[in-house]
Design a protein that fits this description.
Number of helices: 11
Shape: globular
Strand order of the largest sheet: 3-2-1-4-5-6-7
Order of helices and strands: HEHEEEEHEHEHEHEHEHEHEHH
Number of strands: 12
Strand content: 15-25%
Radius of gyration: 21 Å
Distance between the termini: 58 Å
Length: about 325
């Protein structure tokens, strides 16, 4: 009964929230504002990445920016809203819908833009789920790619699955990488000298056979035993509360040279380190370009990399 009561309350609250947002949008449109609506569909994130807010910082008085999240733990200003995924279609008069995680439900009758969140052309998703991802991305009007490497990857991706959609795919535009722009704006005043080692794997469910997750505890143990470095484990935001992350935290909580970093911004962690260890995460190249420091790629199965055809991508070619 309690679960049913909470569900009914959540639906009623969502209804009145959507009504309030629509009224606010109508008022802003009356003031000749352009409306941009950023949405993050995962329940694992309660705050927008700082670079997303920075991206809109100088848009000017002609624009109004809304941030929507499928999470109740909203942290931010008055334009941050908890909106259940299915309610997006009841929000009207939004000019641009923007997301950096693939959606298949959008605000009503908006221009739909997908902002790709990786700086390099690493694997998008497990091969078994590629078609599902394609069906979501095909619904967008524009796809913002960070560089030519990513553009080539997405062109190949759409060619692979687009045989029955009659050309209904987003227009790809190279727009740079705003996350790196955001991070680099403060780097000139930053000076760091230490021997911290950061471990930042990709999402565990991304491509399990290429993930380093099953070896994480062993790697951390080896580093703590054989080096004097502080070992900083930084899981992907989606994996912050998983059983393995909690298990690792419990295993090493009494070691002064171990730290679990679940902060929203990795700027300080990355700058205060001497190297990064990762598997196939896009953060490898963000780290390298930001810090100019080494990355160690932990590769469990190079034969599988070849089998999947990833060896032709710059992400893997440029690891050396």
């Amino acid at each position: 009964c309690l679960l049913k009561h909470n569900l009914i309350f959540s639906i009623i609250r969502s209804f009145f929230l959507i009504l309030a947002i629509n009224i606010k949008i109508i008022y802003l449109k009356y003031k000749n504002k352009k409306i941009i609506f950023f949405y993050y569909p995962s329940k694992q994130l309660a705050k927008p990445a700082n670079y997303i807010e920075y991206l809109f910082h100088d848009f000017g008085k002609d624009f109004a920016i809304f941030f929507g999240f499928n999470s109740q733990n909203i942290v931010g200003d008055k334009n941050h809203y908890y909106i259940k995924y299915g309610f997006l279609k009841w929000i009207y008069k939004v000019d641009i819908f923007l997301s950096n995680s693939a959606c298949d439900i959008f605000t009503n009758n908006s221009i739909k833009i997908y902002l790709h969140h990786d700086i390099y052309d690493g694997p998008l998703i497990d091969i078994k789920k590629e078609k599902e991802l394609f069906q979501r991305l095909a619904k967008y009007d524009f796809l913002f790619s960070s560089n030519k490497k990513n553009t080539i990857m997405f062109n190949n991706f759409f060619d692979k699955y687009n045989f029955n959609l009659n050309g209904s795919i987003p227009k790809i535009m190279e727009t740079g990488y705003p996350k790196l722009d955001y991070l680099k704006k403060n780097i000139k005043t930053y000076n760091s000298i230490n021997n911290n080692i950061v471990i930042a794997p990709t999402i565990r469910e991304h491509i399990k056979k290429l993930s380093m997750f099953d070896d994480l505890k062993k790697i951390i143990e080896i580093l703590l035993t054989n080096t004097t470095s502080k070992v900083i484990y930084r899981p992907h935001p989606i994996n912050r509360k998983t059983h393995l992350t909690l298990e690792i935290e419990e295993s090493f909580k009494n070691d002064n040279n171990f730290k679990l970093d679940i902060s929203n911004d990795y700027f300080d962690t990355y700058l205060n380190s001497m190297c990064l260890i990762t598997d196939i995460s896009g953060t490898a190249y963000t780290y390298a370009f930001l810090t100019k420091k080494p990355v160690i790629f932990f590769s469990k199965n190079e034969e599988l990399v070849d089998e999947f055809g990833y060896n032709e991508r710059s992400y893997f070619k440029d690891r050396d």
